TrEMBL record:
It comes from Pseudomonas eucalypticola. This is Heavy metal response regulator transcription factor. Residues 2-115 form the Response regulatory domain. It holds the Pfam family Response_reg. It comes from the Bacteria. Keywords: DNA-binding, Phosphoprotein, Transcription, Transcription regulation, Two-component regulatory system. Residues 123-221 bind DNA. GO terms for biological process: regulation of DNA-templated transcription. The keyword Transcription regulation applies. PANTHER family: REGULATOR OF RPOS, TRANSCRIPTIONAL REGULATORY PROTEIN CUSR-RELATED. SUPFAM superfamilies: CheY-like.
């Protein structure tokens, strides 16, 4: 599932992105309303977490834009806790409203509840050739054989599976799995992909994790 976080407090945005990625989601982050609008206009999201007080465009304005484009679930996350603010948000079409400070476990529960309600349901099990990735149970197997992965390996595999067939850049993978931007000389992603391949690809056929030289990585099965 692909989520957008629009939050101008950098530490809060980083905290949210890290927790959501570790919970199996793909996450984009915008630190102001103008960047948020750009993401909303350029990509489709399964859910958007939105602050109210934002530079550039505020949350109310972004919510109106979101509703003009469709029915993507929106969770307001804001320090504005007055009753009239909550009512305004819900009247404008927000699906939920959580006041700061908040517990991440509560936010995660609300996110999952909204995704269950929404038109797009989170895929619980990915099956690609003989690879099976069970998101809820956090289990991976090939050919019926269980494979033990670290949290980061699972997040990397989940990202690749959730965007099957897409070529994902090293920068995108680093931002989604580790919530990092990194120098081009860093080989962190290559090392992680190599370790993941050693567990889920090297001992098996067909090969599912593909390197697109100079671009990034792709997970897909050959045509039947």
């Amino acid at each position: 599932m692909h989520l957008l976080v629009v939050e101008d407090e950098a530490k809060t945005a980083q905290f949210l992105a890290k927790g959501l990625v570790e919970s199996g989601f793909s996450v984009d982050v915008a630190l102001n309303g103008l960047d948020g609008r750009h993401y909303i206009e350029e990509q489709a999201y399964d859910l958007i977490i939105l602050d109210v007080m934002l530079p550039g465009l505020n949350g109310w304005q972004l919510l109106k834009l979101i509703r003009q484009r469709g029915d993507t679930p929106v969770l307001f996350l804001t320090a504005k806790d007055a009753l009239e603010d909550r009512v305004r948000g819900l009247d404008l079409g927000a699906d939920d409203y959580l006041v700061k400070p908040f517990a991440f476990v509560e936010l995660l529960a609300r996110v999952r509840t909204l995704l269950r309600r929404g038109p797009a349901r989170e895929i619980e099990v990915y099956r690609i050739a003989d690879l099976e990735l069970d998101v809820l149970r956090r289990r991976v197997s090939r050919g019926g054989q269980r494979i033990a992965l670290t949290n980061k390996e699972f997040a990397l595999l989940h990202l690749l599976a959730s965007r099957r067939g897409e070529v994902l850049s090293r920068t995108l993978i680093a931002s989604q799995v580790w919530n990092l931007n990194f120098d081009s000389d860093t080989n962190m992603v290559e090392v992680a992909v190599r370790r993941l391949r050693a567990k889920v690809d090297d001992p098996y056929l067909p090969k599912l994790i593909h390197t697109v030289r100079g671009v990034g990585y792709q997970l897909d099965a050959p045509d039947e």
